[in-house]
Amino acid sequence: MFSNTEEFKTGFSKKLAALTGTNIEDASYNDIYTTIGSMVREYISSNWMDTNHQYRKDNVKQVYYFSLEFLLGRLMGSNLLNMGIYDICEQGLKELGVSLEEMEEHEPDAGLGNGGLGRLAACFLDSLASLNLPGHGCGIRYKYGLFEQKIVSGYQVELPDHWLKEGNVWEIRRSDKAVEIHFGGHVTMEQVQGRLKFNHYAYETVVAVPYDMPIIGYENSTVNTLRLWSAESIVKDLDSHSISTHDQRKIIEYKRQTEAISEFLYPDDSHIEGRRLRLKQQYFLVSAGIQSVLRSYKKNYDSVFELPNRVCIHVNDTHPVLAIPELMRILLDEENLSWDEAWDITTKTISYTNHTTLSEALETWPVDLMKSLLPRVYMIIEEINRRFTQVVWEQYQGNWEMLRNLSIINDNTVRMANLAIVGSYSVNGVAQVHTDILKKREMKDFYQMFPTKFNNKTNGITHRRWLLRANPQLASLVTESIGEDWIAEPSQLIGIKQYLSDASFQQKVQDIKRSNKLILADIIKEQSGIIIDPNTVFDVHIKRLHAYKRQVLNILHIMDLYNRIKEDSTFETSPRTFIFGAKAAPSYYFAKKVIKLINTVANIVNNDSSIRGLIKVVFLENYRVSLAEKIIPASDVSEQISTASKEASGTGNMKFMMNGAVTLGTLDGANIEIAEEVGDDNIFIFGLTPNEVLNYYKYGGYSSWDMYNTFPRVRRVMEELISGEIVAQAGELRDIYNSLLSDNDEYFVLKDFTPYVDAQLKVSQAYKNQKKWTEMAIMNIAHSGKFSSDRTIAEYASEIWKIKPVIK
Ligand SMILES: *Cc1c(COP(=O)(O)O)cnc(C)c1O
């Protein structure tokens, strides 16, 4: 294609003219973007075909990562980077008078996920391809991604995210590979040649059409596939003459209901949403995915018995766990295997990642709903449960409690986590502490029964997007200092430790941080009109809004700090800019009140000239991947303050560390492993431990009123919530007040308040010693290699999936 800027410019101008009929002077950003996108697609198409061809030719085992969410973000920059042509494109466009960076700003995020779970899936795809591993994604092509957030008078307003409005250059529609999905209907049984045969009839058919997106490995020739399914009806056109009005209405209704399946991503993070449409989405993905996996498998193999040696289906959380009964259904009803044969294949093919121990997030479905929507699949789940509980009963004679805990169906609900554990060969948690809690507490009985199924795979992030792409200046400094081997082997980042006390290296690290802070300050000024000072500490709390993530703890500390500054004109602190970004699920009432509280406090603090510019508070609207890429490189302090035991891993924490921000956090999720890597001197840890929290839940003994009565500063900020001092309507924030006091503060905000204030004081003091602070930042970057998703994926590949890199 092109190996220098001249070739790029020639190819580009030709392509632009052919595609849009314009020249560079008249081209819109979208024209330019589409042109480069299709050049990239052409360029990689032979690698894409070759990759598939080689996987097939070499009969390699392949993994399919099933996930209801892929939070990809923007793709142009990372694709150009991985192809090794970012610099050529940038220079070529510059010579044509176009800024690549500005053009990238016009690309909508592919926001097909809520938060960490979806972003993890995206990082994993990048690592699979970059490590030459045969692994693909399987998901839903939602017409609308996670809603776009606007803040109006301090409140969240949700707008639909129509990300496909201008088309999607990265996808290829494959109508030839469409499959049918069946919902509803009835099942009959008959004896055929001594075998029970099940007939599913009177069902409704939905067509699943795949759209394939290339997943480009970093400077290798691997191109894997992310296959996203779109739901379509089988009725093509309505011939209004030959159909009655009644039938027309029914057809229109059927079309509407069918297309609704891939219309919206459920904007709900870690709260189970008990809706029929969501269950339809799950089965739609799983059935389409498995049919397509089996079809491709069968091109190479006559017998299904080889399946576990050639295919692994990984389910990301319980959302795609219907893969288990669906694979059973196909093996039983279509391949005519016996139950034992089908079960043996299924349980050797499917592996499962658990993402939470929050009980409200553990997925369950009413039996009646599942039975009516998926009658045959439900029969299979029932049979799995019948056989499984029989084994439990034999193994744990008369232990009713064990039976009740382990049963897949209980109290007229199907427990998806139980189904996942019983029907898979591997169950992994996402950070050491999370896996330990699963083994010792939440899934203790399952662990006793299947000790070897359980294992840990601490999450990771792709350092290509989150360092190389998001922070090019820091990446260049690292490469200048230790060479470029760290890009292929991120553990080599440790090499920069030799410059820990090198004054010139420190200066460069500081300059880069400052430069990133200036860029962010411009964005903030443009978005909110707020002017922030790059000399202040950028203290950042960005993630989904959830009670357990404790944005409330952060804002209560800000209120307290503000009080102290107002009361004492000699009060000293390192000047701070507190930056928030968070979407609340539209139905999550409490979370929305917290957004209002943050914006209200921001409004007061930012307009009070008496506080000597010591604090500013910014709430950035519409937090998403592309915004995270700008905020994180500019951050000094990374707020990771979830209630200990609640954040399974976190991945935001890793992105910050890799960009030289220092963590202020609880002993939760991967924060614990970050602390182990950087050492206690290079992180600020405070608050209850996971065991302390879990023991409070188990044995009681916590009273938030005690905190209120013991600590005057706690009482002061609590009173401010309801006094009318900060919001005009005194009742507006009473729900936050009540949850912290009358409802006894489920997430231990008031318990951790005083330790948090102390930790914040230490942060403030530490920042005053810039040399020391910079050393902390360097230590964080140097030790971030462990948290590359390349390490995580290498562990999944060798320990769970048993797949190997494909050498070309
Ligand atoms: C990384 C990321 C997350 C996850 O952040 P946590 O702090 O781990 O909850 C959520 N949303 C976006 C856009 C991200 O990039």
UniProtKB/TrEMBL annotation:
* Gene Ontology MF terms in the entry: glycogen phosphorylase activity; pyridoxal phosphate binding
N6-(pyridoxal phosphate)lysine occurs at K655
EC assignment: the record states 2.4.1.1
| Keywords linked to the UniProt accession | Carbohydrate metabolism, Glycogen metabolism, Glycosyltransferase, Pyridoxal phosphate, Transferase
Q: Which PROSITE patterns match?
A: PHOSPHORYLASE
| Cellular component per GO, a single term | cytoplasm
Cofactor or coenzyme needed: pyridoxal 5'-phosphate
Signal peptide residues are none
Tell me, what is an example of a GO biological process annotation in this record? glycogen catabolic process
Reactions catalysed according to its record: [(1->4)-alpha-D-glucosyl](n) + phosphate = [(1->4)-alpha-D-glucosyl](n-1) + alpha-D-glucose 1-phosphate
Q: Which Gene3D superfamilies match?
A: Glycogen Phosphorylase B
Pfam family name, one: Phosphorylase
**Protein family:** Belongs to the glycogen phosphorylase family.
What is the recorded function of this protein according to its Swiss-Prot or TrEMBL entry?
A: Phosphorylase is an important allosteric enzyme in carbohydrate metabolism. Enzymes from different sources differ in their regulatory mechanisms and in their natural substrates. However, all known phosphorylases share catalytic and structural properties. Allosteric enzyme that catalyzes the rate-limiting step in glycogen catabolism, the phosphorolytic cleavage of glycogen to produce glucose-1-phosphate, and plays a central role in maintaining cellular and organismal glucose homeostasis.
Q: What is this protein called?
A: Alpha-1,4 glucan phosphorylase
